[in-house]
Amino acid sequence: xxxxxxxxxxxxxxxxxxxxxxxxxxxxxxxxxxxxxxxxxxxxxxxxxxxxxxxxxxxxxxxxxxxxxxxxxxxxxxxxxxxxxxxxxxxxxxxxxxxxxxxxxxxxxxxxxxxxxxxxxxxxxxx
Length: 127
Description:
Helix content: under 10%
Distance between the termini: 40 Å
Shape: globular
Largest sheet: 7 strands, mixed
């Protein structure tokens, strides 16, 4: 069992930056691909970014490519999402998720492949 806790959300003006953290407990994250998803009010959950458990491969949604960066520190069992040039449309609850992966290069943008989820952290971007 993996417990995930997100932090770092908040209120920021458009153009600003935030860094989200996702700390894991219960098991080491070293065999888990990780993902960030978000859900805005009245909208479906949306993929944001994913990273393989080796950290060597990443993939982003087109809407955040070039602005967001996902990274991980397996020694600290923590995954990060650096968000720059934030826009009002980035406003959502952000969730991190863990997917056990056999291959170090595996990742996924499909929410249904992730087994463990955090409780979410609110990000609000004002115009």
